Amino acid sequence: MLDCAVIGGGPAGSTAAIYLARYHLSVTVFDDDTSRAASIPLTRNHPGFPEGISGVDLLTRMRTQARKYGATISNRQVTALRKIGDTFVISFANGAARARRVIVATGTVNRKPPMSVGRHDSAVARGLLRYCPVCDGYEVTDAAVGIIGNGTRAFREAVFLRSYTKDVTLISLDSAHGLHGGELEQLSRLGIRLELGPLTAIEPEEDAVHVVTPAGTRTFRSVYPALGSDARSELASAAGAKLSEDGCIVVDAHQRTSVAGLYAAGDVVIGLDQISQAMGQAGVAATAVRNDICERSPLVR
Question: Per residue in 65-82, pLDDT tens?
Answer without folding.
Answer: 999 999 999 999 999 999
